[in-house]
Amino acid sequence: MRKLTLISLLTLSAGCMSVYAETVHVSTPKTSLVLDAVKGEPLKFVYYGNSLGGNDITNINSAVNQEFDAYPVYGLWPQKEAAMSAVHADGNMTLDMGVSDVRTRTEPDGSTVTTVTMADKVYPFYVDVNYRTYPGSDVIETWTVTSHDEKKPVTLTRFMSGYLPIRRNDVHVSQLYGSWANEGKVEEAPLPHNLKVIKNKDGARNSHTSHSEVMISLDGKGNEQSGRVIGAALCYGGNYKLMFDTDDSDYHHFFAGINEENSSYNLKKGEKFETPALALTYSEEGLGGVSRNFHKWGREHRLANGDKLRKVLLNSWEGVYFDINESGMGQMMKDIADMGGELFVMDDGWFGVKYPRKNDSTSLGDWTVDTSKLPNGIKGLCETADSLGIRFGIWIEPEMTNSKSELYEKHPEYIIKASNRDAVEGRGGTQLVLDLANPKVQDLVFNVVDTLMTNYPEIDYIKWDANAPIMNHGSQYQTADNQSHLYIDYHKGLEKTLQRIREKYPDLTIQACASGGGRANWGILPYFDEFWVSDNTDALQRIYMQWGTSYFFPAIAMASHISASPNHQTNRIVPLKYRTDVAMSGRLGMEIQPKDMSDEEKEQTRRAISDYKKIRPIVQQGDIYRLLSPYDQKGAASLMYVSPDKKDAVYYWWKTEQFVNQQLPRVKMAGLDPDKEYTVTELNRVDNAPLPYEGKTFSGRYLMSNGLEMPLSHNVDWNKRNDYASRVLLLQSK
């Protein structure tokens, strides 16, 4: 049980004077954040790390050799980096903040929020620094709310969500980077001198090229199972900036928040500016411990419907692309139903009347069924799905339009466009982004979902895509003096719209797709059940992408699909067994045309789906243990999921390089109960004979000390042999 946030009073002596300070202790089951809140002085950071109690809290100040503001501001001593800067109505560019109040409250969701209010010593300018904890979670969320009572607007020029000083040592940072179809790659490096910046400027999506999450290993190169590690995740879907400033002190200075570049914000009197939460966690169980903390917190408090198991689905995209027709959809629904799937999702290409959607150059915004393709409409497809015992889902891209569309012809003022400039167009040569700062556009986007769900309440799943960045800086809705609000107000509008949708349709499953993995972030996921990891469905490359993505996001949120061979993105030929074993390590689905599969392949897939349903609770709700990284280039990769009670586990192993007579490491398992006995069953087996340890029982202690030997190839008929090998093992205890 989480210890309640403590606020204890200490008396500090200053010559003949006595002043009162509050030691603010924000605690979780295994971590502590300690702050000093002296009235009239800046809030001070004291400690963040393993849980403290008793004398440690009382005496911790004596063990700290340097003192830092917990939320540093710009103006006095301006040579240091700051979390906030502002220009007052009279042009003064300085802030000088002191604590005025500390209070704690319990929220309806059971969380505890501690708020430290700071006020400028001259101007009526205020910043609330907030800290939230949840029972049973080792994540602390911090964010700020800024307001003022000055007569004219104050311009905010930097507005970070949080700051953390990190003691210099051999500090390494792990981050995710990449590009379209190559998302979620892992890079780890020691912190450099001076400045390291990770940022995004896409505008609409933010996790293709970099991520707003990092792991900070305090004792050298990160280890999966041991070592002190801080995890930080900015919960924001827009432009962000993570910054490590290393000065001449003994500390690195970490800042995270909205990217302020070209985004200064004119704050009116009485208006509140709230930054997104920065989620912090700490573990002495290495990178894996931080991942497990984020996964548990995410499933329980951030991810939409994080407590509900996800369905096995077939998506139509790679099967037919834009070639949607009623008989084809019916055939695909029957195939997935026959293979044991639970949901069919019709992707792009189903809409448009004046401009039928035949490719990506027309029709976005015209969400009317093309009855030349679907004579019986969506209702007919829903009825077909129901008759087959599965659910029906549909693709939309409601934040976008095309210049060739009825929507754009009626409302050209709805798009993002700079004044005195032609609109910049994207995908298909015609795609445009709608200005979600505009309340009319918010209503429009809400109505896309609301109309679908009102007319077709049978819809179980929506794939929400976003295939363009903000391509020019300009809002036709904002006033001329507030054009710098574009990036921030776009995401405010998006969030308002998503909140309305979730309030009305809380149980609807919604996937965040943004040209693949462009929206893998904890700012978007409170409104989405999952995200599309990447448009690249190649199984071998997915091992790398899903490995990195798992640093911060749980398997239940990662859509992972079996696709065709040769793969449509890499042209790689990979056997079905391997493709399936990779997909089974996330939220299993299919991205394929089933009629192109042989009867034998369909039967193999049917068995695999049946096996996945057995392990679905472990994979989607269990604790991850990454065992052998593909980035270590040892010829294989391996991970496992363990049920919270450690009763059952699923072990994955994939060969990542193909050579004759390879010498591969034997992988030790992790996370098991050493005293439990686990019986081994191979899933999705294709071998002519079972593994020698099939049905045998081993102690958790043995498996964590020794692991099990993985054959380098499969025992199959000569004509079925290939150079790939993979295994999925179910471990069950009584």
CATH level-four homologous superfamily name of the largest domain: Aldolase class I
Number of helices: 12
Structural Rg: 27 Å
Helix content: 10-25%
Strand-residue fraction?
25-35%
- Total domains, how many? 3
Q: Ranges with pLDDT <50 over ≥5 residues?
A: 1-20
Q: Decide which structural class fits the backbone.
A: alpha+beta
Count the E strands: 37
CATH topology of the largest domain: TIM Barrel
What CATH first level of the largest domain would be assigned? Answer: Alpha Beta
Mean pLDDT: 96
**Major beta sheet summary:** 10 strands, antiparallel
Shape: globular
Through-space gap between termini: 27 Å
- CATH architecture heading of the largest domain: Alpha-Beta Barrel
What does the model show?
The chain is of the alpha+beta class and 734 residues long. Strands 7, 8, 9, 10, 12, 13, 15, 16, 20 and 21 form a 10-stranded antiparallel β-sheet that branches. The longest helix is centred in the last third of the chain and has 23 residues, at 599-621. Mean pLDDT is 96; it is low at 1-20.
